Amino acid sequence: MKEKLQALREEALAHLRDVADVQVLNDLRVKYLGKKGALTEILRGMGSLSAEERPVIGQVGNEVRGAIEEVIDAKQQEFQKAETAQRLQAEKVDVTLPGRKMTQGGIHPLNKVIQDIEEIFIGMGYQIAEGPEVETDYFNFEALNLPKNHPARDMQDTFYITEELLMRTQTSPVQVRTMQSMQGEVPVKIICPGKVYRRDDDDATHSFQFNQIEGLVIGENIRMSDLKGTLLQFMQEMFGPDTQIRLRPSFFPFTEPSAEVDVTCVKCGGNGCRICKQSGWLEILGCGMVHPKVLEMGGYDPEKYSGFAFGMGVERIAMLKYGIDDIRHFYNSDMAFLKQFATI
């Protein structure tokens, strides 16, 4: 048995000497030292040895195992060093190279204008209210004093999904939903930002989807002068302290009286130029006192409470603020255009 162990040692060391692969090394470890390996098979015959021979053969077996394990461990370390060196060579980093410049993004001009408007009105005590973009005919029209077949519905060419579901044409439905949720409590003081949809042909000043912000105030003794003062403060904070406004009579089914609001031209300051067609004024939004029927449908007694509402297109505000002449610039992902606003 001693001779068998010595022969096994020589055989194993001869095979291990030429190993050049980790997988082959593991296979040889199993072949010679595994539970069913060659060394284990030989040592199983120790049961037939005498008591005097067993310690001697056991010692020789341990020496053979130790010699084989020593070579295997050395080969394992050799392979690990070679793998590490190869990875270092393949993954080396030239620390002398200049760093890669991180591209800094910016807020989209429309989002920036929305944020500015929200901050101004939050500073005046308003809260932000939101609602669904897919709206019912009731909230989009009927609750705003626009019953079915009302001629004023033609003012807004609507995307209908079904007879009762549509893409909202304004953010006014949020006002109605807010009034109903308040259950007659006052004050109501909200702005409603969001996307709206109308069947318009895209051109320099129109889009089938655009952003709108509407405002609503309800309480006791709310007057037209409160509306004018609110809009004047907003315009001066948005366009500068010298900005002035004027109100012209108009018609909206959900307000009475109604008015169009003009602002002094942001280009010439009211002196007259090509932008304002020499008038000194630019039309900017619509407003008015909330119609008594709208108050009733919102759950308020028009004999006790009054309110005002206004609505503006965010794109219109942004075009005036930044001197942009085509609404399509906001949506065509032109990086040269958008980079102008990266630091605004």
TrEMBL record:
Domain of life of the organism encoding this protein: Bacteria
Chain sites annotated for binding Mg(2+): 256
Cofactor note: Binds 2 magnesium ions per tetramer.
Keyword Ligase recorded: yes
GO molecular function list: ATP binding; catalytic activity, acting on a protein; magnesium ion binding; phenylalanine-tRNA ligase activity; transferase activity; tRNA binding
Reaction it catalyzes: tRNA(Phe) + L-phenylalanine + ATP = L-phenylalanyl-tRNA(Phe) + AMP + diphosphate + H(+)
Required cofactor(s): Mg(2+)
EC number: 6.1.1.20
Gene3D superfamilies named among the record's database cross-references: Bira Bifunctional Protein, Domain 2
EC category: ligase
Gene Ontology cellular-component terms listed: cytoplasm
Compartments, record wording: Cytoplasm
Subunit structure: Tetramer of two alpha and two beta subunits.
NCBIfam families, A to Z: pheS
Family: Belongs to the class-II aminoacyl-tRNA synthetase family. Phe-tRNA synthetase alpha subunit type 1 subfamily.
Name of the protein in its database record: Phenylalanine--tRNA ligase alpha subunit
